[in-house]
Amino acid sequence: MKKTLAITAAFLLLSSTLGSFALQTGHDQFQKALAKERGEGNLEEAIALYQKVIHETKDEALAAQAQLRIGICYEKLGRAKAALAQEAFQKVLDKYPAQTETVKAARDRLAQLAKAEEPGVRKPTFRKIRTPFNIPQWSGGRLSPDGKSLAFGSGKAIWTVPMPGRVDPELAGEPKELPGATDVLGDGLAWSGDGQWIAFSRAYEHIVATRIAFRPEGAHIDVIPSSGGEPKRIPVPQWVATKGDTYRRLSLSHDGKTVAFDAGGQIFIAFVETGDIRQITKDGGISPSFSPDGTRIAYLTPPVRQDNPPARLHEVWVISVDGKDPVKISGELRENLSVKGPTWSPDGKMIAFGRINRGSSVGAELCIVQVPETGKPVEPPVRIELPQFSTDFLAGWTPDNKIGLLLETPYRENVYSVPVTGGKATQVSPLHGMANHPRWTPDGKRIFFRWKQGGIGSVPSDGGEVSVHTGFEGARIETGLFINYPGAGLSISPDGRSIAFAGGTAKSGPYVYTIPVAGGGPTQITTKGGGPCWSPDGQWIAYLAEESVAEGKDIATIFIVPKGGGEARKITNESHNVTWAGIDWSPDGRSIVYFSKKADSLSGTLNVVSVDGGEQREVCQAQNIRPHDEVSWSPDGRQLAFASKGKIWTVPAAGGDPVEVKTDVDAWAGMLDWSPDGRRIAFSGDSGMDVEFWFMEDFLPLIKK
User: For domain 413-666, is the CATH number 2.40.30.170?
Assistant: First the structure.
């Protein structure tokens, strides 16, 4: 009897163990299938593995999930497989009714397939691939032709990284620096169609005040093996002749022997081995893109400027590589927009391009249009709203029909205050309000700022509801007046009754204005200038304006003008090296503090100049000076607070070493003002615009065949 019980117990234990093993094996198999689907894009193999899970597992929930994924794989294979996708989703409903969440997902997919034929329904899948590292803005990130690796420029190098890596289908792999690629801007990266070559531009370098600066000695294109090595160099005299007039987007032919680029608003191709260059377009073209077979080039027409408001009306065209038979394919998209791209589908039958419409609630869209052999497209572009905004987002179209996107996190700019000694900052403006240029009222009870897109707002100094300046809003509606950014000034008069600011319209300005705090319209007091600030006695306003010192040479100069307008008096000259950034008047009224640097330098100094005699002295060094950086004098005149490299610093006004004011805020500090009681500093900090990599999938059912 005991022997029988022992055998029975052993059998039950073995059965349990085998069941657990089978369950674990089913989950492992499911993960392998998921990796094939999402990681490798091998949809046929993924379907086979999902089917194996269904046949072998005893876990009904897992089987239902596998059946759902089979339908999704068929969706990704395009409209030709739509019937198989519907059949797979219907099986989830029929065979696994108890799995309510999975059944709901399958039912939603069926409804989406049914609606795919309806006009205006555009709902693909967006999936983010997380990167532990930062992808810089303007990196030129582009997917390899097999869709498995992203190349991007960072600093002065090119990096390649698996997308995704081996660890997780939604996590990038290990980034590796490409040997031999140096001094890389990033914007113009391009892969050859066979994946063996990468082209990049070395015609530009990063600086601070503006994003790029042209260097004639670097006006060439390098083509390097995608595994690294010695680049082949092509000089581009067209860039020298047009002083770098290019949109920087390059394209390589399938074999890597020909590179397309734009210069002076026309498309050219260069032969890598010989360096010979030939113009392709006659009527204008930028941002070229070779078709997969190398016989055609898609491109954009250059932007067209129009008065009030300025407009950028790009169109997408296709032309043969010998410059014949140009065909417009973008359709009649005539909103106030910018177009990005274009990018070909791997089979050469479609083109994707991006649209940025800043005047719409839809900030960025992806458009897909079928390319005709001859003549005009039969269908208008399919327009797909993107989940986040971007400035240059198309990274490539993979063989398994995923489109890589470089999207940016939402931009935010808010006003904070922090103790002068540092600590935890307090946000005083609303989360999504876009507030900057903070200025305390003389009684310390409120903080005024530039609000949203060029208006004036204020809040209690400890935070609260925004009060919008109605007089300024009336001027905006009547004349189109807006406050400049940066350089608004927003200086509050010592008696608290007036605001000085720099503003203009789409056609004129900037000028210095004053406006009553209590309401009423603005009064123009200068014919040019920005960054105004009041004198302590309230009788004068100091401001920055351009001054011509030689033919073709203008410098920033500090002027002062009576509060009601009139003849301005110059305070600085060329030797002061005044740069466009914030200025402030000392509490005793004798001096003005400003940023100084030479034109060919990124860094400079914080200087003080006498209002009467023009004498200047250096207070401290200042790095990476930007127009957004401001300086503020403490109420007792003993210290200065200034912004540099996204941080706040204080320094004795007599000179010394700056000390950082810790804010514990993940934002780039720039514009600031010292509180009247000397205890706190108000500042604006901007955040967001971090670049993220996304895949857009399941979009083929939206496109008519």
Answer: no
